[in-house]
Amino acid sequence: MEKLLDIVGKISGWIWGTPMLVLLVGGGLFLTISLGFFQFRYFGYIIKQTFGKILSKETRGEGTVTPFQAATSALASTVGASNIVGVPVAIMFGGPGAIFWMWVIALLGSASKFTEVVLGLKYREKNEEGEWVGGPMYYMEKGLNWRPVSILFAFGLMIELVPSIMVQANSVAGSAQDMGISPLITGIIVCILVGLVVVGGIKRIGAVTEKLVPFMAGLYLIGAGIIILINIANVPAAFALIFKHAFQPAAAVGGFTGAAVAQALRWGVARGCYSNEAGMGTAPMAHSAAITDHPVRQGFWGIFEVIVDTLVICTTTALLILTTGIWKVEGASQTANALPSMVFTKVYGPIGGSIVTFSLLCFVVSTIIVIIFYGEKQAEFLFGLKFSKFMRYVYLASIVIGAVGGAKLLWSFLDILLALIIVPNMISIIALRKDVIELTREFFTSDLYYKKDISKSV
C-alpha cells in the first residue's frame, strides 16, 4: 500500500509541476494575447458590469438564475480552505514573492475563466426540467464534435468529485473535532444541510450562495482587515517584500527557511491556479444557468470570480501574514496552515480562532454544495436526469464516509484525476478561441451591448 501511495504521489507531483503550470499559465497568456488583452483594456467597464451590478435586480435575456447567483455559485466552489490556509503555505515555501506570481496568474487566468464561461453560454441547452445547462462537455461535443473527449471529461469529473467531497468533508470534520464534535456527527449534520440545498437544484443553490458567499467572505475579510489596519504601518514594507522577492531570492529569517526565485514562481503560480480554478472547466457549469442577453456579459462575472477569490481574499490573507510578522516566528514553517488562526487568536483572543474555524466550515460546506451540483450535471450529460439524482445520493453518502476518514486510498488519486480533467478543457478552450474572439468583438462593437451601456453612463 505504501509503495502504491508513493508511486501515485510521484506521478501527481510531476504532473502538477512543470507540465500543468506550463499548460495553465501558457494557455492563459495565449488567450490573453488572442483576446487583445481585453481584461486590462476594459477593466473599468468590467468592474462596473459586475461589482457595480451586485445589488441590481435588472436581468436581460434567458436563463434560470440571476448573473450574480451564477457567479456566487461558482465562487462557492473556488472560495475555500486554500484562501485561508493555502496562502501562508505558499509564503512559507515560496517566500513573499510567491504572492506576486499569484497575482500574475490571476490576471492571465481571468482570460481562461472568461473564455470557458463564454463558451459555456454559447453552447448551453435546456434539460428535461426546462433549466439551462452547459459546460465543457457541451462545448467539446457541439463546438468541436469531440464526443469521445466530452464523455471522458464528464465521466472523469463525475468520478473525481467523490474523493474531492471526501477530502472537503474530512477537513470540516477535523475543524469540528477541535471543538469536541465527533466526525460521524459532523458528517451526518453536513450531509443533511447540503442535501436540503442541492435537492432544490441550481435555483436553490443560487438563492443560498448569493447570501452565504458574501456573508462568509465578509466575516473573514472584516476580521482580517481590522488586523491589517492595526498593522497599517507595515503594509508598504509587505508590498516591497512581495515585489522584491518575486525576482530576488528571499533569505532565511526566524521561522522562514528562505526561498529561491524558482520556488516563489512555482508556489505562487500553483496557488493562483488551484485557488481560482481558471481553466479547470468547473465554473461554466454554474454560469451556463445565468439569465443574460449575451455570453460575453456573463463572461465578465468569471473575471469577477478571479478578482474576488485571488486578488481580494488571497491577498488579504497574504497581508495578514506579512504585516503581523508571524511568518518570521520560530517554527512558522512547521505550522504554516495554522498561521491565520494564530494571528486571529492573538488579536481577538479565543473567539479569533473560532472566527477562522467558522469561516473555514462555511467555505468548505459551500464548496461541497456546488461540486455536488457539478457532479450531477456530468451524470445528467452522460446518463440522463434520473441517473443524476442517483449520483446526488452517492455524493451525499461520500460526505459521511469522508468525514470519518474512510476510503483514504481514493484521496491520493485526486490530483491525477483533476489533471485528466483540466488537460482536455484547456485544449478545448484554446481550440474554440475564435468563437470567443468573434463574440467579444460583437459585444464591444454592437450598438446593443457595450456601446449602449456606455451611452447610458455618459
UniProtKB/TrEMBL annotation:
Organism: Koleobacter methoxysyntrophicus
Key words, A-Z: Cell membrane, Membrane, Symport, Transmembrane, Transmembrane helix, Transport
Family: Belongs to the alanine or glycine:cation symporter (AGCS) (TC 2.A.25) family.
Membrane topology per record: Multi-pass membrane protein
Keyword Membrane set for record: yes
Transmembrane segments: 20-47, 149-169, 181-200, 212-234, 306-327, 347-373, 393-410, 416-432
UniProt keyword Transmembrane helix present: yes
Subcellular location, record wording: Cell membrane
Entry's Gene Ontology cellular component terms: plasma membrane
InterPro entries per record: Na/Ala_symport (IPR001463)
GO MF entries: amino acid:sodium symporter activity
Protein name: Amino-acid carrier protein AlsT
This protein's encoding gene: alsT_2
